[in-house]
Amino acid sequence: MPAPSLNTVNSLENIDVVILAGGLGTRVSSILKDTPKVLAPIDGRPYLEHLIDRLTGFGARRILLLIGHLADAVKTHVETNPRPDCEIISIIEPQPMGTAGALRLARDHFKSNPVMVMNGDSFVDANLCDFLNNHIASEAEGSLLCTKVDDAGRYGRIDCDEDGRIIRFVEKDPDFHGEGLVNAGIYLFNTAMLDYIALSFGASLEHDIFEKLPERHLNTYAGTFTFIDIGTPESLALAPEVFRRIS
Prior knowledge:
Oligomer: single chain
CATH class: Alpha Beta
Strand content: 25-35%
Number of helices: 8
CATH superfamily: Spore Coat Polysaccharide Biosynthesis Protein SpsA, Chain A
Largest sheet: 9 strands, mixed
Number of strands: 13
Helix content: 25-40%
Shape: globular
CATH architecture: Alpha-Beta Complex
Structural class: alpha/beta
């Protein structure tokens, strides 16, 4: 696929979207049992279907689903519930590889520049086309979608300069009680960034890739967004209400 033009982009039609869904789901395994986290039922539908609805609403037409734990169940769901509005390609990790490792495995499947990558257990109500336009305008090799929270000390926060370039990543700090930016788990990577990840070592995008890059190498697109991570029993229980509110 060609790179998007520098004019305003109003659709993800020409952007590959990668969903990272290979995790074990340890924290919610007691609730979901043999159901993969990405298929967790939310208001009677698998979480994956809500996520794909969101992506196709922004025009996404090619989705790569990177799966590992209980992969057969996810692959079967995708094959028996085909979507008329997009192509979904399942790529199975032979063993747990982490977020960076999964991207290395799938590198040769990516066709667009940039590629959108997202965690398969989180949901953000940000405008993904606005995120794409911000990334293109920044001319950065990689961009992180971030959300503002009132108490950033509960999370690992991100410090930026006045242009939105990342200066440092700060670990959770119970002594910090103030507003800050946190990683919302959606990224845009140019070809050069994907090649760098493919040639690097380590399993984690956050710790083994992002934190080792020079200051101001990565861009942020930030706002006050509704954000939910279905990876804990508490947040999974809240998910139906959040989805109803967003829709």
